[in-house]
Design a protein that fits this description.
Blueprint lengths: L12 E9 L4 H18 L3 E8 L6 E8 L2 H8 L2 H13 E9 L4 H9 L4 E4 L9
Parallel strand pairs: 4-5
Antiparallel strand pairs: 1-3, 1-4, 2-3
Helix pairs in contact: 1-3
Length: 132
């Protein structure tokens, strides 16, 4: 039997942010990522999972893996000053940034994501469940 839940702005979703770092900037970027990660951990209870992972085939490519409790958690993340600082410093150290969302989000969250101007692809949930 397949359990299908109603997915909307109140349900968890996964966001993958694919990052590319400029040559010679990896150490500085890793320091930036660690500072950002610590700040998010301390200030965002709606962030359920937050990691920065390096591509095994490209030492300049990384992925932020983020699980949000709901749309409100993402909107809080987007307005967090530490995230603003991170994005400003990314502009100096990085040369690529795209976002993929896996899950159903509401109109406000979708608009906020689109307003960042980053390449964005949203994969809507069709069936499944979250166990949080």
């Amino acid at each position: 039997m397949l359990f299908m839940a109603n997915f909307d702005a109140s349900t968890p979703f996964l966001l993958l942010a694919r990052i590319h770092v400029k040559p010679g900037c990896v150490d500085d970027y890793l320091s930036l990522a660690a500072t950002t990660d610590a700040g998010v951990k301390d200030s965002e209870p709606g962030m359920l999972h937050h990691t920065f992972d390096q591509d095994p085939d490209d030492p300049l490519a990384f992925v932020w893996s983020e699980v949000y409790a709901n749309d409100a958690a993402f909107l809080a993340h987007l307005s967090n000053p530490i995230v603003g600082d991170y994005l400003a410093k990314h502009a100096e150290l990085g040369d690529g940034f795209s976002v993929e969302v896996y899950g159903t989000i509401g109109a406000e969250c979708r608009a906020a994501m689109a307003a960042t101007g980053l390449p964005l692809k949203i994969f809507e949930t069709r069936c499944g469940y979250s166990r949080f």
